[in-house]
Amino acid sequence: MADYDVQYNKNTDDWSAKRAGASRTAGRFDTQAAAHDAARGYAARSGGGEVRDHRKDNNQIRNTDTVGKKDPHPPKG
User: Fold this and answer.
1) Which residues of the chain are modeled with pLDDT < 70?
2) Order of strands across the sheet that contains 49-54
3) For residues 46 and 53, what is the distance between their CA atoms, to the nearest angstrom?
4) Tens of pLDDT along 26-42?
5) So where are the chain's domains?
6) How far separated are the first and last CA of the chain, in Å rounded?
């Protein structure tokens, strides 16, 4: 299982999908949506994990998506 972070890079003006704890990105994309979709695929192929989308302006986590495993904190209702 692997967790991925989707973050904006100000220096290259693009979005990256990066495995948690890795020094290099898994891929660079023009849009956050494309980076998120790629990160979901990477996580699914590695047996599941979390995909965390970060905000463009302050890099705080704005969304978490569980892939290929039971969601530890499912929404109520």
Assistant:
1) 71-73, 77
2) 27-29, 14-19, 4-9, 49-54, 61-67
3) 18
4) 999 999 999 999 999 99
5) 4-67
6) 28
15's tokens: 């979005």
Give the ranges where 1-77 is alpha helix by DSSP (H).
32-45
The pTM assigned to this predicted structure is 0.85
Length of the chain: 77
Q: What is the largest CA-CA distance in the chain?
A: 41
User: 47 CB contacts (<8 Å, ≥6 apart)?
Assistant: 1, 2, 68, 69
Element (DSSP H or E) covering residue 50: strand 49-54
